[in-house]
Amino acid sequence: MIYRAMNDEIHDRLAAEGREPLRPAHGYTFRLLLARDDVTTVALADHLGITKQAASKIAAELETWDYLERRPHPTDGRARVLALTAKGLAYVRHADELWGQAEDRWAAVIGPDRLDQIHADMRAYVDASGGRAALRPVW
Fold first, then answer.
1. Which end of the chain is flanked by fewer CB atoms within 10 Å, N or C?
2. CATH of the structural domain 1-129, one choice from 3.40.190.10, 3.50.50.60, 3.40.50.10490, 1.10.10.10
3. Where are the domains of the chain?
4. Which PANTHER family match (predicted)?
5. CA-to-CA distance for 65 and 43, rounded, in angstroms?
6. Which residues partner with 70 through β-bridges?
């Protein structure tokens, strides 16, 4: 519920700034594209747990808004890889700043030492997951 509250707060702030109507699925797409340079629409669909058609729609939206571009695949002449544009990278930096501000508000409620401990506890749990934890939606 905390994640949802923080995520909703960030999306409300982005909407107030007049940004495009980005959804959490777009954020998961941004994070995947930051981590890899070989993402095709098929790989995006697999990562998000959605159909290839739905992944194509997400990619097309982000491309229309100039957050994403399609580039030739380095080894498959028929495929295209998805990549963040300069605007997409700037958006991620801005979203990270907003997330930091939301965490600062959380720290103001419970105290920074307590928040640091919660971060450490969550990191320990993820590290102990045996690689099962991944940054992907749980629809």
1. N
2. 1.10.10.10
3. 1-129
4. MARR FAMILY REGULATORY PROTEIN (PTHR33164:SF99), TRANSCRIPTIONAL REGULATOR, MARR FAMILY (PTHR33164)
5. 21
6. 82
Q: What's the pTM value of the predicted model, to 2 decimals?
A: 0.83
pLDDT beneath 50, residues of the chain: none
Query: pLDDT tens digits, residue range 65-93?
Result: 999 999 998 888 888 999 999 999 999 99
Q: What is the pLDDT of residue 64?
A: 96
CB 36 within 8 A of CB 75: no
State the Cα–Cα distance between residues 52 and 129, nearest whole angstrom: 28
